[in-house]
Design goal:
seven-stranded antiparallel beta sheet
Length: about 775
């Protein structure tokens, strides 16, 4: 492969976090194998409908490949329900690119009803889809074949010691070290078979692999990882929740560790094979190169190299010393013959552990899920559903939405979600006693389980958009058209939140709650904030064919689909100016009260004003709930400020004895008052009815006159307060100072009547010493 050709690919694929030379891949849909594997691809040579044409339901479904309904089954002593979903990505330069993800789910593994094998394979490069399918079709049977052979060897050894062969054939289990060596061997053999396969070219193509071998009789799992797809487990134990102070019902733990150049040990290993480890900015001379960054004793560790660079979607990559190729953002894969010479090999890292009753959810997913979501976020979303298929839909939809927000494209996204309903006592099986091995190994030794779960995965979660996306937004702002629906005709400071309030029925609240519970934006809101959001949601009936959002217009609302189908269409930048261009359909949102499905879109509009990245068109009559950005900001900002107000009130002598609930009640009574520079807020000697708390950015001057006529002056800033003296006595209480604003400022005010109401309640309980 000529470096000059690869350089062209690099320039076109700068934000691809996978393999740099990624060209178009064609092919027909692969039928599901008897193991239950499939891959979502266009049917034959038929292309999805073009610009201005509506996608048929068949074409829409080709983008999403999932189980029809959740599968409930039992493997030995482990009762589970599982589902899977794979969504083809959106690539503007190649809108018909095949889904390069694949997956496998194998029951009756090695002929035992108690065993199963689950895998997710994320292909990359020109033949990435073929590589993923190759591993899907070959890794499970290769593994089964070698396991069976090793079991026969173990049985022969046991029979030679006088044990019954019939019982052993049903109950024999491989020791941990033997099993992990078997799994390593299977991956390496699969890699060699791929190199020899004439139906694909893995010179610059390959696939990652994350798989789980479930041994139901022993309640045991073994996870094998090659690359940067990921396995995560959600656990529920009192000790974990208390220790971590977690608010979630489940705590996420990694069952695998990403193999990328972010890991110091992986960088060192690849450099020993001659690889250069650099980001694209470093290749192009835009970032400095530290040749000694991994020298022993320099303090460099995981997640340091390229951490800041990755904020713009530019991770460290593996390069040849002889040219700017292959540019892989991972350090292990199956395939990738050129990268293999630079240390990017197929040997997996493995983790074995026993399942317990505290283990509730297992997720296997391609890296498209984890580009913008943390392990904990994924488990939190899953935990909010009782059906793993709905959990898959929610996680994939959230991931897809985040990709569209922060990138010009989306990755293929694939996920297997397993809900563990029950873990019984281990059934009778023959192996050595299980011990504990506290490490994840490439070729482990000893017999036991790796009970020390992995604390980090050495790859930062991205929280900002790429430079390319940022430039696209700036360009769109310059050319921005404004629709009546998407333009705010008033300033945020003049926005009246209560003007939007409408009472919602219990059913309507439930629909809104179902939608926002899967959204990262709403994960940390309080019950009070949630109620305000319910009230501020605007009902929006729509008709078939109605344009909800137009690409390029400024967005100010977030939408929840209560009922109806809505297409997401993206027009190429070169055709934005064309009259009537509505683009290719890249996604469909479908809401249904009957199915309790309420997807959402437009989250980015809640954070800041930016042009819409896509158009949304109603495919049917329906109903949306709309939340204005100003309303969201008011709810979040005001409620957050009132939490701060509780802390401020607690510092005031007259409120120090108040309970947390009483302080919360006082804070809920606070009203906002704005003052300009030199405004006199209170006058010494005036009868008062309110006290004041100074909010951030505000400052004022308090002047008090003593009995001898001298004046004392105090500057009050954020967190300061004044006027509390009028809350203590009867109606003749007067202010003891004059307070003047020294800049434009805002205060919380607490009226005497509100304070007396709370105080009266406390006195009845004998809970205050206030005069």
């Amino acid at each position: 492969v000529k470096p000059t050709v690869l350089a062209i690919c690099i320039l076109r694929s700068r934000n691809d976090n996978r393999l740099i030379p990624s060209l178009r891949s064609e092919g027909g849909r692969t039928k599901a194998t008897k193991m239950g594997c499939s891959s979502s691809k266009p049917v034959g040579n038929k292309r999805p409908s073009g610009v201005g044409q509506r996608m048929s339901k068949t074409e829409v479904n080709q983008r999403i490949d999932s189980i029809n309904e959740t599968c409930a089954t039992t493997f030995g002593g482990v009762s589970v329900r599982y589902a899977y979903l794979s969504q083809r990505g959106y690539y503007p330069d190649d809108p018909y690119k095949a889904n390069q993800d694949s997956y496998s789910l194998t029951h009756n593994f090695i002929g035992r009803e108690s065993d199963a094998f689950f895998g997710v394979y994320d292909g990359h490069g020109r033949d990435g889809d073929k590589c993923a399918q190759f591993v899907r079709d070959n890794l499970p049977p290769l593994t089964a074949s070698i396991v069976k052979k090793e079991l026969q060897n173990e049985i022969k050894n046991a029979v030679s010691n006088g044990e019954d062969i019939e019982d052993l054939s049903k109950s024999m289990e491989l020791p941990k070290d033997v099993l992990q060596n078997v799994l390593t061997k299977a991956h390496v053999m699969c890699n060699k078979k791929m190199h020899a396969c004439k139906d694909l070219d893995d010179t610059l193509s390959g696939t990652t692999s994350i798989s789980m071998y479930l041994h139901g009789n022993r309640n045991k799992i073994t996870v094998s990882n090659v690359g940067d797809s990921r396995a995560v487990i959600g656990r529920s134990t009192d000790s974990i929740l208390k220790k971590e102070g977690a608010s979630s019902t489940l705590k996420a733990f990694a069952l695998s560790r990403d193999q990328t150049p972010y890991r110091r040990d992986e960088r060192i290993r690849c450099r020993k094979s001659g690889a250069r480890v650099l980001s694209l900015d470093q290749i192009e001379g835009l970032e400095p190169i530290n040749e000694d960054e991994d020298e022993e004793g320099n303090g460099e560790g995981d997640m340091v190299l390229g951490e800041e660079i990755d904020e713009g979607g530019d991770p460290p990559r593996i390069w040849s010393p002889n040219g700017d190729y292959p540019g892989t953002a991972f350090t292990r894969s199956i395939g990738d013959a050129i990268a293999e010479e630079l240390g990017v090999f197929a040997e997996p890292e493995l983790l074995s552990r026993e399942l317990t009753k505290e283990d509730k959810i297992i997720v296997l997913a391609s890296d498209g899920v984890f580009e913008f979501l943390t392990n904990q976020s994924v488990i939190d979303i899953c935990a909010k559903f009782t059906d793993p298929l709905e959990a898959c839909r929610a996680v994939v939809a959230e991931s897809y939405e985040l990709w569209l927000q922060y990138e010009m494209r989306t990755d293929d996204i694939t996920m297997i979600c397993i809900f563990i309903d029950d873990v019984g006592s281990p059934q009778g099986s023959t192996t050595k006693d299980l011990g504990v091995v506290a490490s994840v190994a490439s070729a482990a030794s000893g017999d036991g389980v790796d009970d020390d779960l992995i604390s980090n995965t050495a790859r930062p979660v991205r929280s900002t958009m790429t430079a390319e996306k940022s430039r696209a937004i700036m360009m769109a702002k310059k050319n921005m058209s404004r629709s009546v629906r998407d333009v705010t005709e008033f300033e945020e400071e003049d926005f009246d939140l209560e003007s939007l309030f409408t009472e919602k029925t219990a059913e309507e609240k439930a629909s809104i709650a179902e939608a926002i519970r899967a959204s990262v934006m709403f994960q940390n809101i309080t019950d009070e904030q949630r109620e305000l959001i319910y009230k501020a949601m605007e009902p929006m009936p729509v008709k078939e064919g109605q344009l909800i959002i137009k690409q390029g217009t400024v967005g100010d609302r977030f939408y929840i689909v209560d009922e109806g189908r809505f297409e997401v269409r993206i027009v190429p930048e070169s055709k934005l100016a064309e009259e009537g261009a509505v683009g290719n359909c890249v996604h469909v949102y479908e809401g249904s009260r009957e199915n309790h499905s309420h997807p959402s879109f437009g989250e980015l509009a809640l954070m800041y004003s930016a042009p819409r990245a896509a158009s949304i068109i109603a495919q049917s009559d329906g109903l949306l709930w709309a939340l204005h950005r100003y309303a969201f900001n008011k709810v979040i900002a005001e409620q957050s400020s009132k939490l701060e107000a509780e802390k401020m009130l607690k510092k005031i002598d007259v409120f120090k004895s108040f309970s947390s609930d009483s302080l919360k009640e006082l804070a809920s009574s606070l009203c906002e008052a704005k003052f300009s520079r030199d405004d006199v807020i209170i006058n010494e000697g005036d009868v008062g009815d309110s006290m004041y708390l100074v909010l951030p950015g505000g400052s004022c001057k308090s002047v008090r006159t003593s009995k001898n006529g001298s004046e004392s002056e105090v500057d009050l800033k954020e967190g300061g307060f004044f006027g509390e003296e009028v809350l203590k006595g009867g109606p003749e209480n007067k202010y003891q100072s004059t307070v003047t604003a020294t800049n434009k400022m805002t205060c919380w005010t607490l009226q005497k009547s509100d304070a007396k109401r709370v105080i009266s309640s406390l006195r009845k309980e004998g809970a205050t010493n206030m005069a």
